[in-house]
Design goal:
With 400 residues, the chain is an alpha+beta fold. It has helices at residues 16-27, 43-47, 74-79, 82-91, 111-123, 175-182, 201-208, 244-250, 269-277, 284-289, 294-304, 317-328, 384-399; strands spanning 9-12, 32-35, 54-57, 65-66, 96-98, 103-106, 127-129, 134-140, 143-148, 151-155, 157-160, 187-193, 197-198, 214-221, 228-236, 240-242, 259-262, 330-332, 336-337, 345-350, 368-370, 378-379. The protein has a seven-stranded antiparallel β-sheet with strand order 18-17-14-15-16-13-19. A hairpin with a 2-residue loop joins strand 9 and strand 10. The two termini are 28 Å apart. Bound molecules: dihydroflavine-adenine dinucleotide. Dihydroflavine-adenine dinucleotide binds at residues 12-18, 35-38, 42, 44, 47-49, 53-54, 134, 161-163, 166-167, 171, 173, 175, 344-345, 372-374, 383-386, 389. Keywords: FAD, Flavoprotein, Oxidoreductase.
Length: 400
Amino acid sequence: MPASPDVDLLIIGAGAAGLFCAAQAGQLGLRVLLIDHAPRLAEKIRISGGGRCNFTNREAGPANYLSENPHFCRSALARYTPQDFIALLQKHGIGFHEKHRGQLFCDDGSERIIQMLKDECEAVGVQRWQPCTVAAVHALADGFELETSQGTVRAPSLVVACGGLPVPKIGASDFGLRLAQQFGHEVVTPRPALVPLTFSAESWAPFAELSGLSLEVVVSAGQGKQRTRFLEDLLFTHRGLSGPAILQISSFWQPGQPIEIDLLPSLDLAAALREAKGNSRKQLGNVLGEWMPARLSQTWLKQQGLDGSRPMAECRDKDLETLARSLKQWQLTPAGDEGWKKAEVMRGGVSTRELSSQTLESRRQPGLFFIGEVVDVTGWLGGYNFQWAWASAHACAQGA
Ligand code: FDA
């Protein structure tokens, strides 16, 4: 068992935010000890972006984040930008490419990012206890004392970088949230976000046969000024809907509320059907099949009680209008979501109300910091969550 080291900064959680904060604080001359209970380092980075880690988004800005206080993330994001992280990758000779709307991925897999963060930590002498569990955290007059499976350790400052609740089988825990509550912090109710949505078996039965089908849609949720829309790909699954469009809207969806999907966003369908009616020889099913996957058009017509073999000229205007509306404004109310096992991030977390937006330090307990996903700042899909991890870690290291 190692002797209790003399350190300036303790960090619980050696994931994206914890590793980056440790490296940054080490560069500023602080002696840092990182503690993580998982057997393997940074599992979420490893599995991220389908194994290629969508490590940032060129366009990342405050508008891409959800929080009770949407302005909270502003300062940290402005002081550590996507370009700063790109420069770090370039320093380490790590190749990357842009996939879609500013999303940057590693050419050679996410392992390169983990190695880079590890190297950055080792270069400045960061110590790491892993796997190591923390049994208790005590506030002292001049800092914090941790009782851990590797012994007791003290330091003037403590950073909580334990992440969110998604994917418990690779180390996620509610430790950070409980610790926040121990020090009197409010926690905004955590909910799975960037998660597939599910429907009751009965209501989904007609669409289950579409499983695996993907198409570009506009999906929206919310009312009035709160209404949010995304133009992205949607994927039908056996239990409901997934794909980037659904993951994005899931973060905005409120249980019990409907979502609305435009299955043909680039087409004025009502006008197109009216025009097609002029061509009497074409059948309704074939016409629809020109604009959307045949499987979907067949299922849809069946659902609407319409005969796809009917010639366009014989279709009633009213039926065509109803058909157009059903495809352009498909309203459906999810029964739920796929939960923490499938969510990519957590909505909610440690309330920003009593944290400094400059340093992420607790206003209740000097020397205590919360960074990364454990904080009530949740990014959209597309590299924004890692950018928050890097930016909040950087802000904290400057302030610690
Ligand atoms: P993170 O989860 O990285 O680290 C927390 C660490 O704390 C873990 O190592 C954990 O073991 C440790 N810990 C937890 N409880 C502890 C305890 N009690 N004691 C000690 N240690 C403890 N984002 C993005 O921007 N681009 C992407 O491509 C993806 N892809 C993606 C795919 C999948 C499948 C998931 C689940 C998530 C993503 N994300 C993502 C989200 C991204 O992974 C996430 O937002 C960041 O990893 C958050 O960084 P943190 O450091 O805050 O938590």
